[in-house]
Amino acid sequence: MLGAARRTARTTALAPARRTLATEHSPPTRFASATVFPDEPSHPTVLSDSVPGSRSRQASQLIGEFQDPRAHVLVADYAKSKGNYLTDVDGNQHLDVFAQIASIAIGYNHPDLIELAKTDEFAVASMNRPALGSFPGADWAETIQKGLLTVAPKGVPHLFTQMDGSGANEGALKAAFMAYRARERKEAGVEDFTAEEMSSVMNNAKPGSPELVAMSFKSGFHGRLFGSLSLTRSKAIHKLDIPAFDWPAVSWPSIKYPLDEYASENAEAEARTIARVEETIVEWAKRGKKVAALIVEPVQAEGGDNHASPSFFKALRTLTREHGVFMIVDEVQTGVGATGSFWAHEKWQLDHPPDFVTFSKKMQAAGYYHAESTRPSLPYRNYNTWMGSPAIAMQAREIISFVKAHGLVQHTAVIGSELYSSLEALARRFPGMVTNLRGKDHGTFIAWDAESPAQRDQFVAAMRQQGVIMGGCGERAIRLRPMLIFGDKQMEVLLGKMEGVLTTLAGK
Amino acid sequence: MLGAARRTARTTALAPARRTLATEHSPPTRFASATVFPDEPSHPTVLSDSVPGSRSRQASQLIGEFQDPRAHVLVADYAKSKGNYLTDVDGNQHLDVFAQIASIAIGYNHPDLIELAKTDEFAVASMNRPALGSFPGADWAETIQKGLLTVAPKGVPHLFTQMDGSGANEGALKAAFMAYRARERKEAGVEDFTAEEMSSVMNNAKPGSPELVAMSFKSGFHGRLFGSLSLTRSKAIHKLDIPAFDWPAVSWPSIKYPLDEYASENAEAEARTIARVEETIVEWAKRGKKVAALIVEPVQAEGGDNHASPSFFKALRTLTREHGVFMIVDEVQTGVGATGSFWAHEKWQLDHPPDFVTFSKKMQAAGYYHAESTRPSLPYRNYNTWMGSPAIAMQAREIISFVKAHGLVQHTAVIGSELYSSLEALARRFPGMVTNLRGKDHGTFIAWDAESPAQRDQFVAAMRQQGVIMGGCGERAIRLRPMLIFGDKQMEVLLGKMEGVLTTLAGK
């Protein structure tokens, strides 16, 4: 693959140490995006002097007249974008391994999705958006049964749809608080809300507004609304000046990479964290603030692609069950195949499923899966006008269908494994510049650290000038979030461009 | 109008007292939905034994296998619905004056929207959803400039798009908190965040997570997420068991209807409320909890369609300015023409615009308008992956364009005025059953009280059996939320059916 004719002249071949492994084991599937996107570029093209080019900058300025443009990377021409390649208004064609912050699953302008868009079904759903909790459409059950329900994680076959990842996490959290109080009532032999609860809640006061708390991990990211932002502990800039709930957070275990090399140190770090989680649950309960829910990402993404072992998550599940704490697994970024399994938490092989699994991003639809037991006691308790969108649920159905039909989860596992091996080789060649490589056996959900935040930014900027869009995370990490259609050709381009940029930066 | 041929046999003509007024003033426009929906039914048809019919009940049961069906009214057949009429899976055709909880602006399957749905533009936007804050599309500025910006309320020409009404309110609230702290810093001569702020915020503690509070009104509704739900004070069932911020709320003035009959009593009630708002701002500041923002609906909708006079809102604006409190006008339900002006707050003729105006529902797109001065100090502070949806912004553009081209705001003002007069006549004929009629000069945004919650429910249920979908609100109110294409024909049907049902219920 790396000797392919399309290789650009500026880069030289890598000799990845374990490249042959994947073929030796005859991968279950391997997907070539050209079969679906015949016009997809084979390599990036940068026409403008720099990225963003002058037209992008002009277009940004125009947007700036009504909306903050300061986080713009470029202004895109979505109509011209194809598969793994994002075209911008300067005509540059970028290999996109960031994919709208991990939100594009099967490529720009995927023909199946464009076909769906032109159907009567999609038009009717888009233009007659229902109040789904009260006036669902005739096709709602089928859309869900053929789509989102086919990938319901084990043990959580019920579904509440929301608008986005923040809303998904907050919806699950609301359900967790309600279920926690329902169990307390049951244990106390109380049938209904008390008069005191009914009146105090209207003043946001206890007991109607309970002093229950939700727990998260430091450096975790769970969204930007007031509840989800209280759980989020990724960066100060996300949180400054916004009032937050007094909720506990525990440090993520101090993991060293590669995980298998530091297995025993990591196990100890994880054990310390588990102990700290338990202490926190006990301490806060003593202060009258019972932990009703714990939320965790399978890999802390925004916070720096921080991993932990399946044992850690198993211990968390055991602990939360012992203390009656509802466990919410936030798969907003890890879900939908990117880690080489449809849900990242499948890898943990839990004996007892999580209570809630939340999703958004690559699914386009958002919401949470749960067990029937956490359906609120009365209607209208977890309810809102739209409760998601039938049109977007159709989109999720098509995405899931394509992912399954083409074995894209297994494909991503195989490609990810090869990519990881090649990155290991790069890390050996450029020590310091590519460190703490992580994401082994996690599909293409791979990251590494640069030497410093400045060097990370410099690397990402240099790659952008080469027509490769990458994203940072945490303090000094670079994360890969390619689509599920990222394959051999794109891997070759990515590695070639990386090698070129690292060589240049190393020479400076 | 009321003598029209299509009048059903079961009802007799009303003689509304002030019917002639509108024509005397030669209404600027009057829209007939048949011009756009030639196949729209002329009257409701109920084929099933009851509503919901057996097919609706079966379809609900199917949905119930994965999602809470207990708030279902019926299961709809959106493909067959037209204009003001919603068809259900039993083939019943309902005149819909609830419109998906006030969320359908220009009718089911509006030809312009269906046409938009089939365009390449809409397909590309739907299927390539960007991370809008970083990779906006080439057409984003134009979509907004030709759509949402053309109806930007006076004084708030900037826009932040979100996913739904709850998110819109929370986004505005975040911007208000940031602007409040920015002003405090400026006044204190502080340039940047302090080290203490940067570290404390990661623990959700002050000073980084400030003790600032947001204020709302009792019986107000502002959404269902953790921040917006803390503002919401409509019903206990919305809030029970969910932790809430310790934020203040003041009672809505005890208004008597009709407003003009009780002008002096109402003015006194409003003055008392204004005084209470000021006391609360002062009292809470003394406790270290400064009120940074106040949120208010022009008409408290979910909470019971509670009105107040323009003077009340003017006084609120004066007061909030005096105390440096940011004023958020929540137009999620009142916006987009239903009250006979595009924004309900236009009627107040404020000398100084509100700081934030939020919208969603009939706009389909959601977000908030604001002044440039409340753009956060740094990028990524108010930011999220999707930040709304370009496809839905196109939908908003088409809705706005149709509303303008057909003068639907003025149309709704005229129709609403006639409807109000006819309802006054009904109220006189059925005293007790139709009381506290309200919404004069508020387009079709009209409501009244039944004698009791049970009688309200009985009335709504009886109307449903007649093929008219209406909504309740507050304790015992019925609210009208027809679309902007609700015209003479539909008014005739509505009044006829109401007269029939009231006559039957009165005879019991």
TrEMBL record, chains A, B:
Record's catalysed reaction(s): 4-aminobutanoate + 2-oxoglutarate = succinate semialdehyde + L-glutamate
InterPro entries registered for this protein in UniProt: 4NH2But_aminotransferase_euk, Aminotrans_3, Aminotrans_3_PPA_site, PyrdxlP-dep_Trfase, PyrdxlP-dep_Trfase_major, PyrdxlP-dep_Trfase_small
One GO cellular component, as annotated: mitochondrion
Name of protein: 4-aminobutyrate aminotransferase
Species, as recorded: Rhodotorula diobovata
Transferase as UniProt keyword: yes
Positions of region (Disordered): 19-54
Names of required cofactors: pyridoxal 5'-phosphate
One Gene Ontology term from the biological process aspect of the record: gamma-aminobutyric acid catabolic process
Family membership noted in the UniProt record: Belongs to the class-III pyridoxal-phosphate-dependent aminotransferase family.
Keyword tRNA processing recorded: no
Amino acid composition bias (Polar residues), ranges on this chain: 45-54
EC numbers: 2.6.1.19
UniProt cross-references to PROSITE patterns, sorted A to Z: AA_TRANSFER_CLASS_3
CDD domains (alphabetical): OAT_like
Keywords on record: Aminotransferase, Pyridoxal phosphate, Transferase
GO molecular function, one term: 4-aminobutyrate:2-oxoglutarate transaminase activity
